[in-house]
Sequence to fold (114 residues):
Amino acid sequence: MINVYDTANQLEKDLRESQEYKDLQAVVAKVKVDNATFAVYKKLREAQKTLQEQQMQGTLDEKVMKSLQEISQEASQYPLMMELMEKERAISILIDDLNKIIFKPLSEVYDIEG
Fold:
């Protein structure tokens, strides 16, 4: 009998071995030692967290959106932040692909056109 939890745990280990994960890990380490970039990184993360909290509560504040846009603009001036965003996009694509594979059986069950 197949244990999907064993498979999921193996997937977690495999993800840690992927080039996308290693690249992301490396650039985050570089960001953390560059004081100016790390300060912008922390500001951006905090603004993103606030936005997500507001979205979940359904209380999206225009000031938060504007602040996030300004911080994102500031972050784009830092080469390491741009590299970080590139690596985040790469791992996000990988995770999206994995999600499609994982949820394929459920998609097939609920396919009303099929």
About this structure: Residues 34 and 95 are 28 Å apart (CA to CA). Residues 79-110 form the longest helix (32 residues). The two ends are 29 Å apart (CA to CA).
